[in-house]
Amino acid sequence: MEKRTFLKTGVFLGFAAAFSPLLEACKTKKGATSDAPVPSTPPMLPPPKMKRTEPFTLPALPYETGALEPHIDKMTMEIHHGKHHAAYVTNLNDAVKGTPYAEYTLEDIIARISTSDADKKIRNNGGGHWNHSFFWNQLTPGPASTPGGALLTAINAAYGSFDLFKETFSGASKGVFGSGWTWLCKDKDGKLFITTTPNQDNPLMLQVVKQTGTPLLGLDVWEHAYYLKYQNRRPEYITAFFNVINWKEVMLRYDK
Ligand code: MN
After folding, report:
1. What share of the chain is helix, strand, coil (3-state, %, to 5)?
2. How far is the CA of 220 from the centre of ligand 1 (A)?
3. pTM score
4. How distant, in Å, are the alpha carbons of 101, 114, 130, 218, 231 from that of 108?
5. Would you say 181 and 218 are in contact if contact means Cβ atoms under 8 Å apart?
6. CB-based neighbours (< 5 A) of ligand 1, an ion
7. pLDDT digits (tens, 9 = 90+) for 74-125
8. Residue 42: which residues within 8 A CB-CB, separation 6 or more?
9. Domains of the chain, with CATH numbers?
10. What whole-number distance in Å separates Cα of residue 185 and Cα of residue 139?
């Protein structure tokens, strides 16, 4: 390397090293102040991967509506999937018309959606569609199982044991005030964390939530998810949820 090039590189690296803590500090600050206005197009995002031509549709359940009995009852499943989720899909198709999101995939919408009033209907219904599609696919008829493999190793590293993880996740779910979700996520290093979101927000909404990550397991704690069978007894519903988790699916999500 020529001396001149070396000097330039050295100066650049010094510059980058000096500013990287500042950049980190900015990121943290942005994450901590979710009420602050955020730009509608985050500069770090690549252009949308795919153009969407078909409308959003309600995915079929991967099991019969009564398959999760007695933990989650048939009528709740019929209404939750056939009415609530279906409405999110219909409303999302309606909301994206004539907006910059009209031809975006659901994933691209979720990554870009902002906290602005203009985005509100798309945020709520896009989140509703994404969250519920994710929810159905991680459930399976019993008997209850537990995770293994790399996911279990990560759970043990983060929480000490599967039982302690379950306790932490259940506690977070009981603590959600009003309607929302609890999420087990992995960060970019594969480390696990638990977070909650209000309404239909989720950890993939980069511009909306405080803590972003890759969701592995999500629990819907809206009353519509449990009220017919459990009424106000959310803790019983949370216990029941742990009897129908498809850990094989959650492990696949972790390994991806
Ligand atoms: Mn729901």
Report:
1. 50, 10, 40
2. 6
3. 0.82
4. 8, 12, 11, 20, 36
5. yes
6. 220, 222, 225
7. 999 999 999 999 999 999 999 999 998 999 999 999 999 999 999 999 999 9
8. 112, 206, 207
9. 74-136 (1.10.287.990), 149-255 (3.55.40.20)
10. 17
